[in-house]
Amino acid sequence: MFFILCRMLAVRAVSHHYANTQVLTAPDFELARDEHCALIGASGAGKTTLLHILAGILRPTSGNVMLDGEALYPADGRDDRWRASRVGVIPQKLHLLPSLSALDNVRLAQYFIGNTEGDSARVLLGNLGLQARLHARPEKLSVGEQQRVAIARAIVNQPRLLLADEPTSGLDDSNSERSVELLFEAARMTGALLVVATHDARIRGRFSRQVHLNKAPA
Ligand code: ADP
After folding, report:
1. 60 lines ligand 1 (CB under 6 A)
2. Residues 6+ apart with CB under 8 A from 75
3. What is the full DSSP assignment across 64-132?
4. Whose CA is nearest to atom 21 of ligand 1?
């Protein structure tokens, strides 16, 4: 029983088609809390597709995903707020809203699920080293600062699962290392399981679990 309760994410027989083309056949895997997982595969192997499935925003053609014992895709669906209160996503393109400050970008994620907890966005940004940048708009922030805002936005609702898509693409070695450390720290801060899609050989070894995806045959 203890074993079952510890299990947090389970991926079973998941595959996905776009039109008639099979783009993903994921291996079955289970991850427990505190396990950090890299989804590895060449470009086009289906990493982003699987990440979207794990995020609850793309119902797989077949198979199922369980998060803390709850199905992400029950027959009658889940609403966006259910998903947003359980899964935090850091997309490859960060999609910060340009007209909002760093603080309001994070608060928006809170408001979306009706989380009115006073100061948590401000405290979180402070913990991520952005105390002096709370009111800056994204265009005034460095790439690293923008990524930290996106991390804060992803964890402000205390998700059970934190997902990041190619977080180190385009970063030099030291920034890439810093970015991975920050994701580990964010997962620690919230107690979330971390899954990162990456084809970056520099960071693979940092993850306790690696799930390999192979490109579907044409
Ligand atoms: P990766 O992240 O590993 O590069 P993706 O999950 O982005 O791989 O894509 C896997 C395959 O699915 C690719 O062949 C891609 O062209 C295809 N694909 C992705 N999104 C769509 C879509 N919306 N419609 C059709 N094909 C898609």
Report:
1. no
2. none
3. EEEETTEESS-TT---HHHHHTTEEEE-SS----TTS-HHHHHHHHHHHTT---TTHHHHHHHHTT-GG
4. 18
At 136 the three-state DSSP class reads coil
For the Cβ of 18 lying below 6 angstroms from any atom of ligand 1, the answer is yes
Instruction: Look at the pTM and tell me if it is higher than 0.90.
Output: yes
Residues spanned by the domain of 202: 2-97+154-212
55-110 tens-digit pLDDT: 999 999 999 999 999 999 999 989 999 999 999 999 999 999 999 999 999 999 99
3-state class of 41 per DSSP? coil
Query: Could you identify the residue written with the tokens 């930290």?
Result: 148
CATH number where 202 lies: 3.40.50.300
> Predicted confidence band at 1 (pLDDT cuts at 50, 70, 90)?
very low
Which residue lies with its CA nearest to atom 16 of ligand 1?
44
- Which residues, listed in sequence order, are joined to residue 9 by a DSSP beta bridge? 31, 67
Give the residue whose CA is nearest to atom 7 of ligand 1: 48
Pocket test for ligand 1, best of 48, 51, 165 (most atoms within 8 A of CB): 48
Cα-to-centroid distance, 46 and ligand 1 (Å): 6
- CB of 15 closer than 6 A to ligand 1? no
107 domain residue, yes or no: no
Tens-place pLDDT, residues 160-171: 999 999 999 888
> Does residue 6 lie within any of the structural domains?
yes
